[in-house]
Write a structure and sequence with these properties.
Layout (H helix, E strand, L loop, with lengths): L1 H35 L3 E4 L3 E4 L5 E3 L4 E5 L5 E5 L2 E6 L2 E5 L5 E4 L2 E4 L5 E4 L2 E4 L6 E6 L2 E11 L5 E10 L5 E4 L4 E4 L4 E3 L4 E3 L4 E4 L2 E4 L12 H4 L32 E2 L6 E2 L5 H9 L3 E7 L4 E6 L7 E10 L5 E5 L6 E4 L7 E12 L2 E13 L5 E9 L2 E8 L7 E9 L6 E10 L5 E4 L8 E11 L2 E2 L5 E6 L1
Antiparallel strand pairs: 1-4, 2-3, 2-7, 4-5, 5-6, 7-8, 8-11, 9-10, 9-12, 12-13, 13-14, 13-17, 14-15, 15-16, 17-18, 18-19, 19-20, 21-22, 23-24, 24-27, 25-26, 25-28, 28-29, 30-31, 31-34, 32-33, 32-35, 35-36, 35-37
Length: 470
């Protein structure tokens, strides 16, 4: 019985000892994760930070970059938290100072690798540097950054993120584009072949796939569609921010109906095809307007059917309503009809795609354009005692139906001014008479049309007038 009690006490002692060890380990783990949260950095006003989706956040006041318990960074700014990812970057446009947060692999000539962590400060972009952030993610820093074909030209820094086929998203404070062509980035000190992940310093070539590995499966065929399959040979290159191409003429003479709303396909000129071959990009070729129509010529290139949709968001000035219009990849023109004259419209062009199971939305062009004014004129044709005859003419480009007529008379003797308003005068080619009294020789009389309407809608900014001495 005594042996049993001794054995029992020994087991209880072991259990208590193990429990104490587990409790101590638990508190140590908690302390470790709490220490991670103490990593905090001040980001001053004027800096630009990118969230994990490469959206630009410009700080108008001070913010803080912190780490979560998983080691991911986030920005606390203006009462909100923004997820930044496993690494982060802050850029000061005024000083060109760049701050890096997290683990970066700096790669120099001679394959020298320097690993940085926590906060790294680069005083300005004159200091040429190249970093690998993670699998298929890179950072280029230089005062001048351009592509070998000169389609890209930017400054200071460039974030490069490849997909597994060797295509790349290129982002900084000036550009946000995606290329599906073999692209080489050239700086003052090195050349980076994006698809092959080869960095060249002079005669030294560095295979970046060998540094922390790469899941890049690029082959030459990935970026060159098979012509025998009747796939366009253009490369979608999502344009720089604000690339609207307003002044480009499309030369469109086609008459084939596109089959989706107001879209028309079959451009008779060669301009769009030339642009596709020359620039190799999904883009808005031209945006032009008439009195009540906006014509958009565009090019969509999606040989691998990566886009789930391509569309534009249309917003009229002074309106919160945004109309979404989907664009047909088989057409190259859309006509936005039955809109108001002399009105500004903002057009944002976007596409959606799926990357790693997540739906992404990218904007490839943004432009604001005004529709034209219809021409309206008023002419006094004759006067007689107590009445004035006048006619209203238009160019018939838009149906204007009525307006208010304001008659102003400035007395030649007293200098006093009096007005008479006649509402809803019809706009047509017929002669009209306005009756007035107390007109004397030398009075200055003006007839002016205001509140010009199409049916019951006032078309802003349109007036017509005629002034004469009685």
């Amino acid at each position: 019985m005594r042996k049993y009690d001794i054995k029992n006490k020994r087991n209880i002692g072991i259990i208590i000892g193990i429990s104490i060890i587990i409790i101590i380990m638990f508190f140590l783990v908690i302390k470790f994760f709490l220490s991670l949260n103490k990593e905090e950095y001040i980001v001053s006003k004027g800096n630009i930070v990118f969230d994990k989706d490469k959206t630009t956040i410009k700080l108008n006041s001070e913010g803080k970059i912190k780490t979560k318990w998983k080691g991911e960074y986030y920005l606390t700014y203006d009462g909100k938290d923004y997820e930044l990812g496993n690494t982060a970057l802050a850029f000061n446009e005024e000083t060109t100072e760049i701050k890096l947060y997290g683990r970066y692999y700096e790669i120099s000539s001679g394959s020298e690798i320097n690993i940085t962590s926590n906060e790294t400060t680069i005083k300005n972009s004159l200091l040429t540097k190249f970093y690998k952030l993670a699998d298929r993610k890179y950072l280029i820093i230089d005062k001048e950054i351009k592509s070998a074909d000169n389609l890209l030209s930017t400054t200071d820094f460039l974030l490069v993120e490849l997909d597994k086929a060797g295509n790349a998203t290129l982002t900084n404070h000036k550009v946000n584009l995606k290329t599906f062509s073999e692209t080489q980035i050239i700086t003052s000190n090195y050349t980076f072949d994006i698809a092959t992940e080869i960095l060249t310093y002079g005669s030294d070539k560095i295979d970046l796939k060998k540094i922390i590995g790469s899941s890049n499966n690029y082959t030459k065929e990935d970026l060159i569609p098979d012509e025998s399959k009747n796939i366009n040979d253009n490369v979608t290159n999502i344009g720089t921010n604000g690339n609207n191409g307003n002044n480009t003429t499309g030369g469109n003479d086609g008459n084939n109906t596109g089959g989706n709303g107001n879209t028309t396909g079959g451009n008779g000129g060669t301009t769009i095809e030339e642009i596709k071959k020359a620039t190799k990009q999904t883009s808005v070729v031209s945006v032009t307007s008439t009195v009540n129509k906006i014509i958009i010529d565009y090019v969509i290139y999606d040989p691998y059917k990566e886009y789930t949709s391509v569309y534009m968001e249309v917003q009229k000035e002074d309106s919160d309503k945004v109309e979404v219009i989907y664009l047909n990849a088989n057409n190259t023109r859309y006509e936005l009809k039955d809109i108001l004259p002399n009105t500004k419209y903002n057009l944002k062009f976007k596409y959606t795609a799926t990357e790693e199971g997540q739906t992404i939305i990218k904007e490839f062009s943004n432009t604001t354009i005004s529709t034209q004014k219809p021409k309206l004129s008023l002419k006094v044709t004759r006067t007689r005692a107590g009445e004035i005859t006048y006619v209203i003419t238009t160019d018939n480009s838009y149906k204007l139906t009525k307006a208010d007529l304001v008659v102003t008379i400035k007395d030649s003797k007293t200098g006093e001014t009096r007005k008479k308003t006649i509402s809803d005068v019809s706009i047509d080619s017929k002669e009209k008479i306005v009756k007035l009294d107390k007109m004397t020789d030398g009075d200055i009389i003006e007839l002016k049309l205001i509140n010009v309407k199409s049916e019951d809608t006032i078309i802003k900014g349109i007036t017509a007038s005629d002034k004469f001495i009685y």
